[in-house]
């Protein structure tokens, strides 16, 4: 225990400030989270789920924190103009870990739908928050979730009441903005009540060439027959560390589409825990990673089938170049009695250089007999016959490789339901492969 | 157009071509026939530079340039086209993107600007007609989910797009029904010009009824053992290869 | 739950399934008898003196004792691993006796010249006759009971070809240079907790050396039997196949039914040199415990082969039906260029058995190739896990691996798990893994029923068909036995 100490000291020294700036509903779990964090400490690489990323090292440096909620002088609506054709999203910003509320998009959300500051919402609707906040994001079994819960002061709430369908996609841009090295602890709570539907797009960007350490905990509750599309795009830079824990709970008949796309980053660790809590629920988790130089990406998923008749599907594709290191560890757990579960998990990887390393670990843990579960995992290269065919048509080897890599990743992109985003991503991915995006230039998607 | 001198090639440790000599002039169509395993497909693969084969001797001159040192894509840019016996499926790469890359790389090689999007689409539409290729196929991934006949038509479509100087049709008739073969053969005939040449590799003379060769070669055990006019194809269809083997003193 | 919604269909299938599960539960362990023979057992407990005592009893040279003491010193610094998907209790290593010798003379008695007829009878009963004239044709046997090799057959005949086949104890006496050169070089004592324990206290096991260019004319085999109560068996096998040689080696094992658990912590080391080939087959049928999960052997084994030579080949085949807990990963280090490794496994668990088994394929040389075929079958309340690692090192150009791991669940109270790890550090590698988990299809069963085959027999047929790919890899004599064992272990499962 070394890296932990500075956070323990920080909490002890600034507990009053943390409480003072936050709603009671968020403060209610803070001390418990602190106790859990102090007890757990950062996981070592001997802990199975953290085998591929050294958490202690990530949290060791001394970052600044904005605990006193100083105003960050930026108007993101001026700095970032969205020109994604026809995406026509409702656009919101989170600057570091604070919801930006000085300006709001012109578009109107349906009656009763809230997209706003978590802290404000927690102040106004403590009874609603209490039933959800820090429930599935358990602080007693993940140190980063505990750390986030003990330090989080704001973030985003998305609340869609019963039977309300939000047609227009909601886009939330997380901007990291600072003149000093900064740690941010962002918290997101998504509540989609029975029969409601929403599409969310999160884009992570760094506006400054500083070292950033971002922890993020997203809790998403998807009610009976509700639908949630959650797209997460990360385009930051090499000095950026992101540890994101996503927890999803699905009730009966609900549908979740989750896409996680990493194009630029420094070190990224994404934990996704999804619980099938009601029968007939379906989920599709897709991910793609395009990494080179010294990027490090670690996707770790757990799908917990607790009840019968649910379907889960996972597809993760990686293309690694340079000295990139990446891991995919997926675990499908089918609990006793979760009969008629259908689960498929695929992870496919291309290593383009000798110095790129891939670790893949697709796991099945099954305690019910009437199930159809399969997983496949491959590490390989581009198809030689296809490469030659293209060269015979006059396409250079380099170009042929690009086309094939692009096609490989497209299987993931094509599964995105939001057509304008899909088209935009096709373009971004192609540019990414061509090396035309050598680093994040603010918001590629939106500028 | 093409001069092949004493060409030797092997795959792995197995020598397949054992001294091929062949000259093709502008505007000529040559048929290469021969029993299975005689080296016909190897010859086409070596000419277009398939890295699986190793050339162990000889030289190939194509329009005054030495071919064997060139990369496969540069051979294509110089005007060499192979209609593959088994066209590979390339999932996720659309025909349109694929063809646009091929056309523009060739233009780059020739020092020309990339083709505009409008012109390109017009060109695609025009050339599709030559082999009656459905618009829907053109929108799919390269060869993915194509039937055998559709794949071969797609090969000829690409040939039409790229306007090669020398086309090699490797068993283009295999697996085609009569109608598909007619469409393919008519396509090839439409593309013939006095300046362009063609090598037709085939087992049978059916295709050669539709694509008339000027010269017919028989390839056997890695060498061209007989060369004659179009009548040779007819004779092989009737008598098989045994009489040629007998002439070589083998049977 | 489902039965309530879908009464008719559910009930039928359930009845059949229950019937089957009941029959499986009633299955008796065939080899559960004990042998009444005078056995010298040393005091329970483990300390440096015990390690010295074992070494002294075996009249070992100093270097061997040194090896044991170093291993013991290391073991003391380690703790029992907890990462397997098994509920292995904290074992009290002081309550076990580490040496049991059924050949020892009685106190004050005469030196035994002949093997006790009781021992001969035991091995006869197990189907392993020790008299050469009765032996299975073409199989030489090293028979080991508790800590001691009882007899090795066909030793002389093999010696004519320069093949050394004897107990490891004899090898340390008679071929010290060979043993010293290879022992602990494939599985160092620091490898893991149980490897350290074994290295400190191993008693007997087999030693095989196949000289250059020799094809071993017969199947070599070890038969392990635990007899004495409260003892652990720590056997150690070392196989060295010199350049251009070939050997096929079989291993079988059984133990009496006892209420308490017995510990078996073995090490098998295999060295394969240039162009040599080794096939190692195991039919593991240790006592699995009773239908309530009482008793049974803890089978905690480290098996590893190093393909040191260019173009060398190693093939592991295992049929695992016994043991209360199995923790075993026969592995291959593909060091030589163009080396080829295979792992074929069928693991059956029933009642409260738990198996965590698989392999490691470590690709270090160029153009190396490995294949993993694993079939898990779980019944009763058992847990069956495949755990495997495929690693491709930075220098292992053109490495290829294909893994296929299928699980079959018979009954709704058991578990089937797959934990594959793939670490790839070379851009020219191709690694493919696929896995499926399912139950026997109603359609297949019904098809068999319609043809007049009763469900129980149909299950046997289907399971055997499912395992066939692996069973086919076994030498003939063993394949038949393994097939029988599979049917017996699972007679009557599912609907």
Care to describe what's here?
Chain C: This is Fe-S cluster assembly protein SufB. The complex is a heterotrimer of chains A (447), B (251) and C (495). By secondary structure, chain A is of the alpha/beta class. Chain A is 23% helix and 38% strand. Chain A has one domain (3-433). In chain A, a hairpin with a 2-residue loop joins strand 2 (90-95) and strand 3. Chain B has one domain (2-247): 3-Layer(aba) Sandwich (Rossmann fold). Chain B is 39% helix and 28% strand. In chain B, the strands form three sheets. A six-stranded mixed sheet of chain B has the order 6-9-10-3-11-12, sandwiched between helices. In chain B, strands 2-1-4-5 form a four-stranded antiparallel sheet, with helices on one face. A two-stranded antiparallel sheet of chain B has the order 7-8. Chain C has a domain at 32-328. Chain C contains twelve helices and 24 strands. Chain C has helices at 2-5, 7-26, 48-57, 62-76, 117-125, 155-159, 168-174, 176-182, 193-201, 442-450, 455-471, 476-490; strands at residues 40-41, 100-101, 139-145, 148-152, 164-167, 206-210, 219-225, 232-233, 236-241, 246-254, 261-264, 267-272, 277-284, 296-307, 313-320, 325-328, 331-334, 340-349, 354-363, 369-378, 383-392, 400-409, 415-424, 430-439. Chains A and C meet through strand 19 and strand 20 of A and strand 23 and strand 24 of C. Strand 20 (372-380) of chain A pairs antiparallel with strand 24 (430-439) of chain C.
Annotate the secondary structure layout.
The complex is a heterotrimer of chains A (447), B (251) and C (495).
Chain A: H1 3-20, H2 24-27, H3 30-40, H4 55-59, E1 64-65, H5 76-79, E2 90-95, E3 98-99, E4 114-117, H6 118-124, H7 126-130, H8 143-151, E5 155-160, E6 170-176, E7 182-192, E8 197-206, E9 212-222, E10 227-235, E11 240-250, E12 255-264, E13 267-276, E14 282-291, E15 296-305, E16 311-320, E17 325-334, E18 342-351, E19 357-366, E20 372-380, H9 384-392, H10 397-413, H11 419-433
Parallel strand pairs in A: 1-7, 2-6, 5-7, 6-8, 7-9, 8-10, 9-11, 10-12, 11-13, 12-14, 13-15, 14-16, 15-17, 16-18, 17-19, 18-20
Antiparallel strand pairs in A: 2-3, 4-5
Helix pairs in contact in A: 3-8, 9-10, 10-11
Chain B: E1 2-11, E2 14-24, E3 29-33, H1 40-48, E4 54-62, E5 65-66, H2 72-77, E6 80-83, E7 90-94, H3 95-109, H4 117-130, H5 135-139, E8 141-142, H6 148-162, E9 166-170, H7 178-191, E10 197-201, H8 206-210, E11 215-220, E12 223-228, H9 231-239, H10 242-247
Parallel strand pairs in B: 3-10, 3-11, 6-9, 9-10
Antiparallel strand pairs in B: 1-2, 1-4, 4-5, 7-8, 11-12
Chain C: H1 2-5, H2 7-26, E1 40-41, H3 48-57, H4 62-76, E2 100-101, H5 117-125, E3 139-145, E4 148-152, H6 155-159, E5 164-167, H7 168-174, H8 176-182, H9 193-201, E6 206-210, E7 219-225, E8 232-233, E9 236-241, E10 246-254, E11 261-264, E12 267-272, E13 277-284, E14 296-307, E15 313-320, E16 325-328, E17 331-334, E18 340-349, E19 354-363, E20 369-378, E21 383-392, E22 400-409, E23 415-424, E24 430-439, H10 442-450, H11 455-471, H12 476-490
Parallel strand pairs in C: 3-7, 6-9, 7-10, 8-11, 9-12, 10-13, 11-14, 12-14, 13-15, 14-16, 14-17, 15-18, 16-19, 17-19, 18-20, 19-21, 20-22, 21-23, 22-24
Antiparallel strand pairs in C: 1-2, 3-4, 5-6
Helix pairs in contact in C: 3-4, 4-9, 7-8, 10-11, 11-12
